[in-house]
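Is it possible to get an amino acid sequence alongside its tokenized fold?
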Amino acid sequence: MEDYKKNIEIARLIARELSGNASSEELLQLKNWLEEDSGNKSVYDSIKNRSKWEERENILAEYDKEKEWEKLSDLLEANSNGHSNVQPDNQTAKKRQSLFRYSFTRYAAAAVVVLMAGATFLYLSRQSGKEVQPTAELQTNDIVPGGNKAILTLADGSTIILDSAKTGTIAIQAGTEIIKQDDDKLTFAKSSGKTYGSESEAGLVAVGMNTIATPRGGKYSVELPDGSIAHLNAASSIKFPVRFAKNERRVEISGEVYFEVEKGKVPFIVSVRNKSEVKVLGTHFNINAYEDESAIRTTLVEGSVHVTGFDNQSGIATAGKVILKPGQQSELNSEGRILVKEVNTSLYTGWIDNRFIFKDTPLEEIMKNMSRWYDFEVIYADASIKELCFTGNIPMETDVEEIFTLLGKTKRIKFQITLKTITIMKEP
């Protein structure tokens, strides 16, 4: 019966995720379940298939839950105890029974998850006065602004949900305390002071590689062991040691990260998806390296940085090296070329101050940034809409419908919210 209870719990998690109410901890549990078995992903995809919701609702309407629950419970219990109406009298029969038990449990588990998640989601939707139909417009609080959310994965593979962790010391690694501060920032404390470049260090190898990852709808800041600060935007990650090597301070990132690098003689190196490397001694800069972007952009606010592009396969520098000055941005494109241009840095770093800032920016680019923060999907009714340009400066805590109402006042677009999907159409 433990598997049966687990399936009901998975159904609850899926329903919570579908309704947009899952916590970071619940999302992690769901992620772990999806990775356990490829069949779990098939069940999950089936539940999220909107075209089947009406069919599933009809099935549930005719479902005699009292009888079916009793039947399913009895069958699962019988199988868990190894009981059968026909007792096996040879090895073949035993194999057949074992195969039946495995198949039954597998398919029953899928049925329980599908039906329970469907029923729970329909229940939650109706309780809040919403109908689950592909064209139904939801209340504005179904798409909400993001917040401080992240998961810390320690060197030993254990994970800590940072947004639900209590303030204070949350882990100790290699003699270093990992501390969550009152402002949700993560810091490191070591009695010997700086955690790199010490004469007492035994070698050149970094110690205790950790990873912080933010989900869509999450941001987080971490003060690295050398005192440098990394601000992670939504759907981003940074991998770093609890103690830097003696000859370099190296981190790896994905997504978007803004760095405030502590000055020092030991170089600070950012590896970006094995495609680029940014090397500095002390400076402030932003790296945008989302995989759905056309280029990896490094924007320098102060100081100087060296940007190098690499070939994915050979690891050889193919795009050369450029040195950026404040107010410049490098773009490493898909062809392996680095282009440098002068930019208004606030357009690329406004998210640090919790602002969406855009000037004559294509709607597609604006929506990429907003969809990561509010965690919604975008459908363009007409591809040409993507190229429409807008200018604005909007607080990131603004209600999403208010933002689209403002955009709609330009008389160029209109929108419709369906679940966590926003369809954007041209004004006739």
Notes: Confidence is low (pLDDT under 50) at residues 79-112, 120-141, 191-203. Residues 304 and 325 are 5 Å apart (CA to CA).
